[in-house]
Amino acid sequence: MNMTSHPFDEILGLEEQFYDEGYQQGLADGVNAGQIEGRTFGLEKGFEKYVESGILHGKSLVWANRVPQFQKGKSSLTSTSKISESLNDGTTLSPSLQLLPDNPRLAKHVKVLHALAESETLSTENTEEAVSDFDDRFKRAQAKAKIIERMAGEVKGDLNGQGKSSNDGSIEDVSVLKAR
């Protein structure tokens, strides 16, 4: 009888063989599931960003319709994308919308916001450069919207701690604290 080959060596190696096979199969399945999950997550986040960009675009149109400078001469906007077409499409200012202050800086911010949030010029390609450009424009548009909200007096919460408050007594809500 040969001492080098034991009759149970093959049986004792089965555990390691099954472990290796299970590991390789799990790794392959994990890679596949990760790709599917990553794609789904990417589509969800991309859709959310595009919806928010559309909201900013809509706000820019409403604000543009409220800027007195644009009401006087709508043709002066031809230099910024299609905002002039949006304003010259026969849409009239709603009686419930009040005109914004006649401020050239405000008008410039509205023009820039519209140009940044215009969906026709946003790339929907899934390349590193296109995504980076979209994110950059989106962040700049959000900042412009905040500036316009403050200039137009449409801020949800002012600097005095009043405004948007839940008054539920949480630590984040310091506006409920009263001085003694």
Explain what you see.
The chain is an all-alpha fold and 180 residues long. It has a domain at 52-91 and 99-154. Helices cover 59% and strands 0% of the residues. It has helices spanning 9-12, 14-66, 68-72, 83-87, 104-117, 128-152. It is rod-shaped.
N-to-C order of helices and strands:
HHHHHH
Largest sheet: none
Q: Compute the separation of the termini in Å.
A: 97 Å
Report Rg: 29 Å
Summarize the structure.
The protein has 180 residues and is mostly helical. It has a domain at 52-91 and 99-154.
Question: What is the element layout, followed by pairings?
Answer:
Layout: H1 9-12, H2 14-66, H3 68-72, H4 83-87, H5 104-117, H6 128-152
List keywords for this structure.
59% helix; 180 residues; 0% strand; disordered C terminus; 6 helices; mainly alpha
